[in-house]
Amino acid sequence: MRRTSVAMTVAIEEALVQRLVRDDGQEDICLATYRPSTGLSRFSALIRAVVPPEPGDRLVHGNATVTADYILRGAEAAQEDKCGLVLLHSHPGASHWQTMSAPDRACEASYANLVREVTGLPLVGMTLATGDRSWSARHWDVGVGRAVHCTHSTNVRVIGGKFAVTWNDAVQPPPQPSTRQTRTVSAWGDRTQADLVRRRVLVVGAGSVGLDVFVRLAASGLCHLTVMDFDIVETHNLDRLIGAERRDARLRRPKVHVALREARKAATAARCNIKVSDRSICELEGLRLALDHDLIFSCVDRPWPRAVLNSLAYSDLIPVIDGGIAIDTFSGGEMRNATWRSHVVRPGRPCMSCNRQLDLGLVAPERQGLLDDPAYIQHAGESFRPINPNVAPLSVNVVASILAQYVSFSVAPAGFGDPGPLQYALSTHHLECREDSASPHCTTEVAEGVGDHRVCLTGLHKDAERTRQFTGAVGASVRLLRLIDDRIEGVTTWLNLLGD
Ligand SMILES: [Zn+2]
């Protein structure tokens, strides 16, 4: 079944709250426009702008009533901006996700056909519970005429310093915390745990950082996790991929296989739904899978995948938590310094290009395969180093820094949300909170909430295709050996579960 969701920035939320919360405590109504963001299994409405009411557009008499003229004007404004229409009203003093009263349902159903006819997109209905600023939403996307029905959304996501998600318990019930999570729950309480564990989280890249992040998310009780990487384990990865074994390198196992195995061992949720994908985020299928998620961890170092993630954090309002490490050496090979960075990429914060963590000029050469061309690398000099030194004792600091950003952004301890870009220099033991600001000329940040109208950065990824194909006699025999090894691993996991 297709899931639906709504996302907005905290700036849009503020504008809506100003329209919907009245000094006299009565209910109110307003309209807004949205752009669609279509994933493989989720359709999200990204709220773009408020369509303010004019005098006489709605009647406020305890309950509020909207006029057909306002709906028609809103639908025409939406259609001109290639948007859908959102009809919002408030429930004064209420809290949590709201169910619909019979008059609410009748009102939205009566305009659903007209709005879809004008805009070509389903009407989205939303309710603000003013008691605790909870949102609820439904998409009028089933049937036509008198048989029109709505799909209740899974959640509503507001992206600001804190990532605030309201959940529809009827569609996505909160799982019961297990005894294995007692210490985790005691850190931030039941309500926060029930929020965190329901989020669909994607980790892009299952290398030294991504693998560790993925396993720790599973250990903290998350129920819906996906890891994406097309690469395989090789002997030279074994000094950093904690959990990967020599047989994984011998069998040329996909890195996502190791991530799946280790996350299953660590998972504390009674039911942890772990998905793996051997796509690249640079491929259309990889991007569409990413659009099914609420939060993404960027654990890749190449410019092209980072550019795709940088773009979708703004265009599709899915926050991306990114980090990396650079180790400098002297010409003689001795260590000079190590620097690790972490930041949440989201509207309101500078993008990875503006905070100088991504050189967009390297995306085109990467797409042309030049970043693996020795002549190009020599010419590019310092701006691109294909083999970055990295060591297991330091990569864990990137993991820690990224996960601390995740906790600040998701939990906001004492009301403080994400701290902005952080950078630590190992040689001088100096932690810096960087003041990088957004650029007025940044094309990534202005494309906020454009959804399916985003600039297309995906394409054919030759490396990913080549790694997945792995054909011929050698490929066939390795696949057979992997199959036998999988069976042995399956029996071991089963025996371990029996032991529990
Ligand atoms: Zn920017």
Comma- or semicolon-separated keywords:
500 residues, alpha/beta, Cytidine Deaminase, domain 2, Rossmann fold, 3 domains, nine-stranded mixed β-sheet, eight-stranded mixed β-sheet, 15 helices, 19 strands, 36% helix, binds zinc ion
Report what the structure shows.
The chain has 500 residues and is of the alpha/beta class. 36% of the residues lie in helices and 24% in strands. It is built from 15 helices and 19 strands. The strands form three sheets. The protein has a nine-stranded mixed beta sheet. Strands 14-13-12-15-16-17-18-19 form an eight-stranded mixed beta sheet, with helices on both faces. It has a two-stranded antiparallel sheet with strand order 4-5. Helix 2 packs parallel to helix 3 and helix 5 runs parallel beside helix 7. It is globular, with a radius of gyration of 24 Å. Bound molecules: zinc ion. Zinc ion (ZN) binds next to helix 13.
Strand tally: 19
Helix content: 25-40%
Q: Tell me, what is the CATH class of the largest domain?
A: Alpha Beta
Uncertain stretches of 5 or more adjacent residues:
none
| Beta content | 15-25%
> Helix- and strand-based class?
alpha/beta
For CATH, the homologous superfamily of the largest domain is named as NAD(P)-binding Rossmann-like Domain
Overall number of domains: 3
Backbone CA Rg: 24 Å
CATH topology of the largest domain: Rossmann fold
Mean pLDDT: 91
- Ions and ligands: zinc ion
Q: Report the end-to-end length measured between terminal Cα atoms.
A: 33 Å
Examine the secondary-structure arrangement and name the CATH architecture of the largest domain: 3-Layer(aba) Sandwich
Output the number of helix runs.
Answer: 15
- Shape, please? globular
**In oligomeric terms, what are we looking at?**
single chain
Strand order of the largest sheet: 9-8-7-6-2-3-1-10-11
What characterizes the major β-sheet?
9 strands, mixed
